[in-house]
Design goal:
CATH topology of the largest domain: Arc Repressor Mutant, subunit A
Number of helices: 11
Number of strands: 11
Number of domains: 2
Strand content: 5-15%
Shape: elongated
Bound molecules: zinc ion
CATH class of the largest domain: Mainly Alpha
Helix content: 25-40%
Distance between the termini: 77 Å
Structural class: alpha+beta
């Protein structure tokens, strides 16, 4: 038995497979991303707390001698165990390595892959159908988000794509749909563009806000950030059925039919579900980057096809 394994055994450290499981669950709780393990990093303590490690277990050091330089090297046993766990997860392609993630996010982080998310969902008995609505990122989806955010805004833009999808394209388009959702809600800082509502679920795994397609998906609207808008559930519905639309200057136009709503409909107490959030001439809450604003061609389509029906 190696010196390290002896130490792990005598200190009753958790076994590697349990550490791997804990890393996956931790990643899931942190939306798919955790920092590289280093001294003083919260995540190192968080996973230690999960196992209820004692101070002795947390602070045990492994001493090795660098023969070449004839000096003593001390390394923290718990950090090594975490690193080995994550390393074998990377070999199984359940996480991306910090060196790979760095190229994508400019940060040295471990990140869940699509396969990793599927594995965690099984571990936690969460149905796969919920995946679409989770705010958990994967390495592959983050790649799509980056592409969506970086693409150059076209002057002439067609928000509709009627091309028939092959099977391969369908799988890709599922991921792209999640990429679209994350890119849009991130751009709007998780707020409804109309009312500004921002809230997530008590377990932090889901945001209330939705990524609405301006030209709807069922009518072949593209999964582009220029065809997207972050809206709360209520205002998403109101936009889809044409209770309001947006003008080219991003101000809100409310359907005149609202004046004819029967008494008692569309009210929050005294205030109404649209007008109470919209001041005359006021713009919606827009993303920080102008490049990611909805495209005029998408808005124009919505006015002509949904609003003026
Ligand atoms: Zn809203």
């Amino acid at each position: 038995m190696s010196y390290e394994s002896e130490m792990l055994k005598s200190l009753r450290m958790p076994v590697r497979s349990e550490v791997e499981k804990a890393i996956l669950i931790s990643l899931f709780k942190h939306n798919g991303i955790i920092k590289e393990f280093g001294i003083g990093e919260e995540i190192v303590d968080e996973i230690a707390n999960y196992f209820g490690l004692t101070d002795e277990q947390r602070s045990a050091y492994l001493e090795t001698i660098y023969r070449k330089e004839n000096r003593l090297k001390k390394s923290n046993l718990w950090h090594r165990l975490l690193f080995r766990g994550a390393d074998s997860l990377a070999k199984e392609e359940l996480v991306s390595r910090p060196t790979e993630t760095l190229r994508l996010t400019d940060k040295r982080e471990w990140m869940l892959t699509e396969k990793g998310i599927d594995t965690v969902l099984k571990l936690l008995n969460i149905p796969g159908s919920k995946k679409e609505f989770l705010s958990t990122k994967s390495y592959e989806v983050q790649k799509i988000v980056k592409k969506l955010n970086r693409s150059k805004r076209p002057n002439v833009y067609n928000p509709i794509d009627k091309e028939k999808k092959t099977r391969k394209k369908l799988i890709e388009s599922k991921m792209r749909k999640r990429g679209f959702r994350i890119a849009v809600i991130e751009a709007y800082n998780y707020k409804c563009a109309l009312c500004g509502m921002k809230i997530n679920s008590p377990d932090n795994l889901q945001w209330e806000v939705e990524a609405a397609h301006i030209v709807p998906h069922r009518l072949y609207g593209k999964d582009d950030i220029w065809n997207g808008l972050a809206l709360c559930h209520l205002h998403h519905w109101a936009f889809d059925v044409g209770w309001f639309t947006l003008l080219d200057n991003y101000s809100v136009q409310i359907s005149s039919k609202i004046d004819f709503l029967p008494h008692g409909l569309g009210k929050f107490g005294e205030s109404d579900f649209l007008r109470s959030f919209v001041k005359t001439e006021s713009k919606i809450f827009l993303p920080e980057e102008i490049e990611t604003y909805p495209h005029k061609n998408s808005l124009n389509w919505h006015r002509e096809n949904i609003f003026h029906q």
